[in-house]
Amino acid sequence: MEISALQKARYEYAPKLPGMLRHGIADICVKEGEETQSVADQEKIKALFPNTYGKKEITFQKGANTSVAKKQVVGVILSGGQAPGGHNVICGLYDALKATNPENVLYGFKNGPSGLIEDDYLVFDDEYINAYRNTGGFDIIGSGRTKLETQEQFAIAAEVCKKHGITAIVIIGGDDSNTNAAVLAEYFAANNTGVQVIGCPKTIDGDLKNEDIECSFGFDTAAKTYSEVIGNIERDANSAKKYWHFIKVMGRSASHVALECALETQPNICLISEEVAAKKMSLSQIADYIADSVAKRAAKGMNFGVAIIPEGVVEFVPEFSALIAEINELLAGSKADAFNALPTWKEKYAFIENGLSKESMAVFAILPEGIQQQLFLERDPHGNVQVSLIESEKLFSALVADKLAERKAAGTYNGKFNALHHFFGYEGRCAFPSNFDSDYCYSLGYNAFMLIQYGYNGYLSKVSNLSKPAAEWVAGGMPITKMMNMERRHGEDKPVIRKALVELDGKPFKYFEAHREEWSENTCYVYPGAIQYYGPAEVCDITTKTLALEKGE
Amino acid sequence: MEISALQKARYEYAPKLPGMLRHGIADICVKEGEETQSVADQEKIKALFPNTYGKKEITFQKGANTSVAKKQVVGVILSGGQAPGGHNVICGLYDALKATNPENVLYGFKNGPSGLIEDDYLVFDDEYINAYRNTGGFDIIGSGRTKLETQEQFAIAAEVCKKHGITAIVIIGGDDSNTNAAVLAEYFAANNTGVQVIGCPKTIDGDLKNEDIECSFGFDTAAKTYSEVIGNIERDANSAKKYWHFIKVMGRSASHVALECALETQPNICLISEEVAAKKMSLSQIADYIADSVAKRAAKGMNFGVAIIPEGVVEFVPEFSALIAEINELLAGSKADAFNALPTWKEKYAFIENGLSKESMAVFAILPEGIQQQLFLERDPHGNVQVSLIESEKLFSALVADKLAERKAAGTYNGKFNALHHFFGYEGRCAFPSNFDSDYCYSLGYNAFMLIQYGYNGYLSKVSNLSKPAAEWVAGGMPITKMMNMERRHGEDKPVIRKALVELDGKPFKYFEAHREEWSENTCYVYPGAIQYYGPAEVCDITTKTLALEKGE
Q1: Closest CA to B534 of A534, A12, A14
Q2: Inter-chain contact B239–A4, Cβ cutoff 8 Å?
Q3: Interchain contact A542–B (C-beta under 8 A)
Q4: Residue range(s) in chain B whose domain bears CATH number 3.40.50.460
Q5: What are the φ and ψ backbone dihedral angles of A73, each rounded to 5 degrees?
Q6: Cα A161 to Cα A173: distance, rounded to the nearest angstrom
Q7: H-type helices in A245-282, by residue range?
Q8: Which Pfam families match (chains A, B) (predicted)?
């Protein structure tokens, strides 16, 4: 197998552990903290998790290892979308497991949670593990999106564990996967299976974050990879001086990625979905906001710029969500047949005009025709509009062009506006993890094994103090139930980990808010360049701006 | 001004010069080689360049500097599209100029060749130059696409030079810009202006290359930046195992970038425009070629893959070019009015069916409707189809989907095919130059000044032996006329630098050809990762695969 020069070099990288885990397995002891309670709905969560609720937060520290000597057979699962560093979680887990007892065994269930249910697995050994150290991707065992949430699935999982003598399962996933990990942990405890469950916080979206989890892994590398190419595009814009680049970045429900990229690259515009929702902004208002920047810069002779658009932003525009709901209603069930039977777009348009409320028709009317057609022609198997297919970067540049045409007619704008479009998502999810993510993930995995070894169940592997050098990181565990509250999901009240949206009174957004006016009118671009794995520490070991600001650095 | 940690660190990087230029200005002497002649059409080229034709190739070597002591006032111009390293050409030029005589002056003409004509310039000093060392972009003075080619422009250029006492102009550009540099050099010589002209070979496309110029600058960094994100996407594909990614990369007339990216990342498919043209491939054949890979992989359970598409490939498909020509004819002049007056696409389609030849209609009929409409609705100011707007990555994935549907109906394919699309171009043109491009460009600029100092005119700054460490590089100059031949351009015979297309019997293509069948069926992805500027030499100082193969490494 041919591998790149960088991959070969990265095999040699020794990830940095938190200082307290560096003395060797024999010298890691547990310090128990306070009993915990969930962030909200304590009584309801407690009732749902009678065996795993209210446990103590723990941290590890230097001291004689007092865990029970017992052969451990651990199964690990990668759940959901790829995030840089996933391989290192498994490597850290493997190294701690083997260092504790060479007889210990690590199973990898293939292609996500379905691997556990289907008993599809491999057994790791040194040779296999070594080919994945400090690499990106989830190809070590594959990932998948099957959810482990039903009693039937849990019963099968228990059987599979029993068959292999599995003592613990580690689930590497986002908020939903860790919610399910907590439910599985409770099931295993309630049924006296003796199997423990430990979660690890993964997602490039950065929305698995709370007072215990400072950041999910992968966010650092993915945001830096997007910022690299956004910075390159900014420099191109500032060299050619003739294009406005509309750049969509991943993040359907939260705008952490967009915000982090903006903090790193200082573009002229960055939309934040949470702000759009809070201010109940209309498409027209957003377009005007961007057009203001285009016009001000044009007046200074700068007919170029860069705008960052979070993937999910249109879903946060109240009038647009209302329109989508009306379209779904308009074409529900057999009503779609009448619409589909109309031979031309003109007739279809008349049907739409007749069917939508006046307010929604006004929103529909300002959309570019391509997007109008997409809303009606490309629907999912349930007949619903596929909002995720909407190319919002093209939508906003088209709306801005309309606004500028109006201003030109009114004599208030006399520039040139040529737009180019980009979407960055898949480019960053499998990058080689930054040194930060390499270290953090390895530590999460190593730490996860210590939690197993000390008998904890339903805990999230927790490594904190992350804005400091790794030597000062704090390793421990937190009951997952502590992060939960009750939310309405698909018509039912469910115990879930609260998803972290961008806080409009948080320091990262406040910093952005304080600077964005200057950035919108002037050219204040910052070019982060490619992630560096070697060289000066101030280049290689910087954390995200988001984390630095949140921790007051 | 806020700058990134990497930019700050890169300021400190000292570019490596060829060994022969390392002893200081006082120790650089000239070794003259043979007189040269153009690669073809010698008599015609000689007649067009009576003052600059047939000059000797030269190399520099260690020895007493015998150049005439004379105050030099040099003007530099960035021409055409951005390429990483342009700033370092100017830095190298500046450093050699100032090291020779602190009284020497360097002018930078702004926003491309038009800056010379409009006398729009700045004068470089240490502080200004230092802010651009080892950085990407052309923002140091901006670039532009104005061509210097008329006698009127040359006369103005001569006046501007006279006004400032300019002794030489350095033009940093691609094949066209260097062709124009040669013509300007001849003009200056014929009119006894005393102004010299030196060219520097720039283009990320890699098509300014010949037996003298081993590669144009910027190709290394740009191709590596695209390969970084292509590798990341490959790893994502191999982790999620559910998408085929169709990735378009820049390169309208030559496929060097696509080929280099393929050599670096080993995707399942890479189209090479030159091969498509040589084999006179049809759209259907290309689609079948890709569909074969999809089907073979699906049969092995791999419903994912990566295909690289060079930007200009459709223009190399003979039947497609014929179709475009017919459409341009069909809508020429007032004929477009009749077409535009038709109210529906259905009626327009009938008009098209009636107007195209049977062969072209057959090609038109297999195109996805979106592209059909684009060909007729989005035309340039002359009424011509805008081929560059065609999203060929989407075109081919749609054609492949059609082929697979046929195969599914025939029972010869039973996989899943979900396509995602990407286009990489602007992402790489302004990246921080790799160590190779940093060194090469600085050397080109330094060397350009030595050519000026020794009185050469109409020369290209030439640095060769590039697959070896910089200490072994060879610095010198080559008359631009040596690289010229006569070609038909816009209905006239013109002396031009021959554009280097991918040679189908060259080593890079041969290597690709020998491996592509295996790559198309199996998963042989290589993940190059981000460009590294520090760390192990085998990671930081590797050249392109193209150069290594061409030089037999």
Answers
A1: A534
A2: no
A3: yes
A4: 244-417+506-522
A5: -120, 110
A6: 20
A7: 256-265, 273-278
A8: PFK (PF00365)
Instruction: Cite the active site residues of B.
Output: 205
**Mean pLDDT calculated for residue range A22-29:** 94
CA–chain centroid gap for A443, Å, is: 19
Distance of CA A131 to the CA centre of its chain: 26
Residues 6+ apart with CB under 8 A from B510: none
Neighbours of B126 (CB within 10 A): 10
Q: How many CB pairs under 8 A join A and B?
A: 209
For domain A244-417+506-522, the CATH class is: alpha beta
Question: Which pLDDT score, from 0 to 100, does residue A383 have?
Answer: 75
d(CA A96, CA A60) in angstroms, rounded, equals: 14
- Partner-chain contact A534 B530, CB within 8 Å: no
> For residue A199, what are the β-bridge partners?
A171, A460
* CA separation for the pair A452, A169 (Å, rounded): 9
**Are β-strands A105-109 and A121-123 bridged in parallel, bridged antiparallel, or unpaired?**
antiparallel
Q: Is A95 marked active-site?
A: no
* Sheet order of strands, A305-310 included: A269-270, A305-310, A244-249, A419-424
Question: Is A266–B2 a contact, with Cβ atoms under 8 angstroms apart?
Answer: yes
How far is it, in rounded angstroms, from Cα A27 to Cα A21? 8
Interchain contact A531–B (C-beta under 8 A): yes
Cα–Cα distance for residue pair A380/B74, rounded to 1 Å: 63
The chain B residue lying nearest A426, using CA atoms, is B233
Which pair of structure tokens corresponds to residue A28?
A: 């890691």
Nearest CA to CA, how far is A418 from chain B (Å)? 13
Task: Residue A430: list chain B partners with CB under 8 A.
Answer: 232-233, 235-236, 239
pLDDT band for position A337 (cuts 50, 70, 90): confident
For residue A553, is pLDDT > 90? no
Residues tagged in the binding site annotation of B:
81, 175, 203-205, 242-243, 250-252, 311, 426-429
**B-proximal residues of A, 134-153, CB under 8 Å:** 135-139, 142-143
The pLDDT mean for chain A works out to 95
- pTM here is 0.97
Contact present, A451 and A477 (Cβ < 8 Å) = yes
The alpha carbon of residue A190 is apart from the nearest alpha carbon of chain B, in Å, by 34
Structure tokens at A242: 């003739």
Residue A521 pLDDT exceeds 80: yes
Options A176, A205, A207, A437, the catalytic residue: A205
Which A positions 422-441 lie with beta carbon below 8 A of chain B? 422-423, 426-432
CATH 3.40.50.450 intervals, chain B: 5-218+435-489
Give the three-class secondary structure for B234. helix
Of B7, B534, B542, the CB nearest to A534: B534
Report chain A residues whose CB lies below 8 A from the CB of B81.
240
Are A272 and A258 contacting, i.e. CB atoms less than 8 angstroms apart?
yes
pLDDT, averaged per 10 consecutive residues of chain B (553 residues), comes to: 95 97 95 96 97 97 93 97 98 98 98 97 98 98 93 97 98 96 98 98 96 96 98 97 97 95 98 98 98 98 98 94 92 84 88 95 93 83 80 95 97 97 97 98 98 98 97 97 93 93 97 98 98 95 95 85
Distance from CA of B2 to the nearest CA of A (A): 7
Is the CB of residue B251 less than 8 Å from the CB of residue B257? yes
Is residue B539 within 8 angstroms of chain A, CB to CB?
yes
Q: Which residues pair with A197 in a beta bridge?
A: A169
**Under the phi-then-psi rule, with left for phi > 0, alpha for psi from -120 to 50, and beta for the rest, what region is B260?**
alpha
CATH topology classification for A5-218+435-489: Rossmann fold (3.40.50)
